[in-house]
Amino acid sequence: MYRFSYAEILEDASDGCRERERLAFDRAIDLLRTASEDRSNGIARSDAISFVQRLWSVLIEDLMSSENGLPEALRAQLVSIGLWIMKEADLVRKEESKNLNALIEINSMIRDGLK
Length: 115
Hints:
Layout: H1 6-37, H2 42-63, H3 72-93, H4 100-113
Helix pairs in contact: 1-2, 1-4, 2-3, 3-4
């Protein structure tokens, strides 16, 4: 029979969460790249922006939770980045900006930081 310590179980759960977050960022980045490459397809852009905004809404909600284990300063910085991403995504959705590359780069950096 296997016996695990509570710390080992928590570490495994944390690793699983980070992997799911990386996969969500991968999906967001793929959608943004597709939208960036096919400028004539408003549906691809709309799908990408909707996904990015939903992703960051969930992340910001978690970051603002008192139960989030990250240091408070880091949480505040990530919330700030997330709010910028959501604002920029909204500008792209309204066609007031075409800054998909910045969204791709920032989300890629955040994803890469999850490793």
